[in-house]
Amino acid sequence: MAEQDQKLSDISKKLNATMLGKLIVIAIVMFGFGYALVPIYKQICEVTGINILTPKDISAKELSNSQIDRSREVTIEFDANTQGPWRFRPTVTSMKVHPGEMSQIVYEVVNKQSYKMDAQAIPSYAPQQASAFFKKIECFCFKQQTLGPNEARQMPVVFYIDPALPEDVKTITLSYTFFEVGGAPKLSSSTEQGKS
């Protein structure tokens, strides 16, 4: 009987070791997949034109080489959409610019909640082909924004239109969607102290 118990114990140890090995492999594969998601996500955004992880468009060196084309004007229309408890809008709805000319627009946002929130802006362009010619130097969309309770903020976008923009494009619409990142409200320290 003791010999049979020993055999069962050995079989059980082998099965446990096999299971542990499989679980370690699965954990490593899951970690690798999670790690690979960021570059995969960036590639999908670039291919589809959904620019969630917005990099800076140009360097200062590129900027110094730009030339202003005063022979034509492009109308830039500004739009704002929200996904969450925000008031979010551009300070002007449109402006005319010369390709190569540095311009600035300001967006205003107000967190209408009584707690801090993190948010991200996603830009989109119409016509979509214009996205390659809309060069942002400074933009609130380059990183997440953290707004305190009932905080209002003005956020600039400094940009220029590449003079290589096709002649038939007379109007470009820049639209931002501003949405909450995370989800659960963060309790203030006074609220947390009241609970303890």
From TrEMBL:
<keyword id="KW-0812">Transmembrane</keyword>
<keyword id="KW-0472">Membrane</keyword>
<dbReference type="GO" id="GO:0005507">
    <property type="term" value="F:copper ion binding"/>
</dbReference>
<comment type="similarity">
    <text>Belongs to the COX11/CtaG family.</text>
</comment>
<comment type="function">
    <text>Exerts its effect at some terminal stage of cytochrome c oxidase synthesis, probably by being involved in the insertion of the copper B into subunit I.</text>
</comment>
<protein>
    <recommendedName>
        <fullName>Cytochrome c oxidase assembly protein CtaG</fullName>
    </recommendedName>
</protein>
<dbReference type="InterPro" id="IPR023471">
    <property type="entry name" value="CtaG/Cox11_dom_sf"/>
</dbReference>
<keyword id="KW-1133">Transmembrane helix</keyword>
<dbReference type="InterPro" id="IPR007533">
    <property type="entry name" value="Cyt_c_oxidase_assmbl_CtaG"/>
</dbReference>
<feature type="transmembrane region" description="Helical">
    <location>
        <begin position="20"/>
        <end position="41"/>
    </location>
</feature>
<dbReference type="Pfam" id="PF04442">
    <property type="entry name" value="CtaG_Cox11"/>
</dbReference>
<dbReference type="GO" id="GO:0005886">
    <property type="term" value="C:plasma membrane"/>
</dbReference>
<keyword id="KW-0186">Copper</keyword>
<keyword id="KW-0735">Signal-anchor</keyword>
